[in-house]
Design a protein that fits this description.
Blueprint (H helix, E strand, L loop, with lengths): L1 H41 L5 E3 L10 H9 L7 H9 L5 E6 L2 E6 L2 H8 L6 E3 L7 H4 L12 H14 L8 H12 L7 E3 H18 L3 H4 L3 E4 L5 E4 L1 H16 L2 H5 L2 H4 L4 H23 L6 H7 L5 H14 L2 H16 L1 H14 L11 H4 L2 H5 L2 H13 L9 E3 L3 E3 L2 E3 L4 E4 L1 H5 L49 H18 E4 L2 H5 L14 E7 L2
Helix pairs in contact: 7-8, 7-22, 8-16, 10-13, 14-15, 16-17, 16-20, 16-22
Bound molecules: protoporphyrin IX containing FE (HEM).
Length: about 525
Amino acid sequence: MAFVYSFLKGIIFTFLFFVLAVVMYLAFWFIVRPFKKRKHFQRYSDTIGYSPTFVPFLGDYKHLNEEYIQKGKFIGHFLRDLALGYGKKKAFFGSLGMDDMVFVNDVEYLTDISKLVPHYLDREPIDTTGFGRVGGTGGLGQSKTTKYWKKRRQIFTKTIGINQASRFIPIFLKHCQKGVKTFEEGMTINMSEHANTVSFEIISEILYGCDIRDKLEKVNYTKRDGTTEIVNLYQCLMKISHDCSFAALNPLNVMFPWLVHYSIGAENKRNTKNSDEFERVIRDICAKSQDSNSVYNQVLKTGEIDKEMAYKDVMAILFAGHETTSKSLCSALFQLKKNPEVEKKLKQEIDEYILQNGKYTVNDLAEILNSQSLDQMDYLSCFVKEVLRHDPPAVRSLGYKAKASFKVKDLLIPKNQIVVFNLYAAQYDEKQWKEPTKFIPERFDPSSDYFLTPSGKQRHPYAFCPFTFGTRTCPGRAIGLMEFKILLIYFMLAIDYEVEKETLENPDVTYAILSPYALNLKINKINV
Ligand code: HEM
C-alpha cells in the first residue's frame, strides 16, 4: 500500500514539475523575454518605434490581423505604412509569438548596418520542416557566410550572372510564347498565376536543363481532406507555398513555431508530407538531368560543390528566382494601365529600338532581342526601376541574426536579435524621393526634375534597393532584370489587354510576394 502511495505521489510530483516547467518556459518566451526586449528598446525611443501596447503571447499579431489579414489586405503593407507613418523613427521593434524582429527603417541606418554583414550580422539557417525545405533549407540564401558559402556563391554567379544572362533569352521567349498560345480573345486570364507558371518553367529549365519537360514526373499532392490529387511540379510548389504561408499566420503556429518545426498538428503534418513529395520529385529530376548546359550540371562539373549541397543551392535559386520576376511583371502590366501616358512612351520606345518602326513584329523577337538592344532603351530602364521602387516584389530582406551585440549610431542591438531591412523605408523616403507614393519613371532620368532629392541633392546610393546590397545582396539581379524586361516587352507586344477600373482605383492593390491580390487581364486582342 505504502509503495503504491509513494509511487502515485512520485507520478503526481513529476507531472506537477513538468507542468511548472512548461508554464515557466511559456512565461519566459512569451512574456518575460519580449517584455525585457521592449524595455531595452524603450531606452532608445527617439530612434526606434514599437507598438503602443504590449500584448503577451501574440505580440503584434493582433494589430496585423485586424488591420491587414482580416480585411484581405497585403500584410507586407505594414512595412509601407511603417515607412510612411513612422518616418521619423529609424527602426521598429515588432514581435510575433516567440519571434521578434528589428525592422531597419532608415537609409543611413541601412547603410551602416549592411556594412556589418557578415561579421556582426549573418543569415540564420531556418529549418522549418514544411516551407523551409522547399525554399532551400541550408542552401545559398540560408547558409551562414562561410568560406564554402563564398565559393558556392562565386560558382553560381558565374553560371547565372551578368555575363551569362543573355544566353537565357531563347528560354525566356520560348516559355512566353507557349503560354500565350493558350489565350483566346475576349477571355479574362489570371495573369498572376500565368506569370508564375511562365517564370517557374523558365527557372526550372535554366536550373535542371531542357530535358526537364520529358522527365517531369507528376506529383502527389495531399489535400486537406486527406485525399491525393495528381498535380504538376509548379502547381505543387504553389500549393505548398500557399498552405505554408497560411500556416505561418495561424495564431498557434505564430505562438509556437516548433509546432511547424516538428510537424505537430494535422496541417503541419500535411505540409511536411507535401514538401517531402516535392523534394522526392526534384531529386529525381536532378538524378535524371542530362543537359550539360543546366546550372545544376555545370555547378557539379566544377567538382567544387558536393551533390547534396548543389541540390540545396539549386532549390534555393528555384524558390528565390521565379516569384520575384513574375510579381514584378504583374506590377508592371498593372502600372501601364494605371498610367496610360507611361504606356504610350514605353510602346514608342519599343517600336523604335526593337521593332525598328514596323520592320519587325513580336514574332521576330527571338532574332532581334539581345542585351545591347535592351541597354539602348533608357525609358524601359527607368520604367523597370520605378516598378521595383514603387512595388518591390520582396518588400523586405531575408532575416539577419546579430552574432554579437553591436551599436549602430546610437542604437544598441543585442546579441541574437533578428534584423530585417524594410525596403519601403528607403524607397518611399520623403527626404530621398519627390512624391514617393506616385509612380513616376522619370525619377531615374538625369534630365528630369524628379531625379534629385526634394532638397536638390543626389539621392543616397541605397535609396533604391530592391535587391538590397552588400555581401548577401541578391545574386540573381542580372538574370532577374533581363528576364523581367524581356517578359514585359513580349506581353506588351503579344496582347492588347485591359484591367478592371475597380482594381486600378484600389490603392491597396499590390502584387508583391504573399499579396492576396491577383491580376486579372481581359484579353482584347492577340497579336501573335
Ligand atoms: C526582380 C527580381 C528579383 C528581386 C527584386 C530580388 C530580390 C531579392 C532580395 C530583396 C533578396 C534578399 C537579400 C537580403 O536579404 O539582403 C534576394 C535574395 C536572393 N535572391 Fe533575389 N531577387 C530577384 C530575382 C532573383 C533571381 C532571378 C534569382 C536566381 C536566379 C534570385 C536569387 C536569390 C538568392 C539565391 C537570394 C539569397 C541571397 C543570399 O542570401 O546570399 N533572385 N533577392
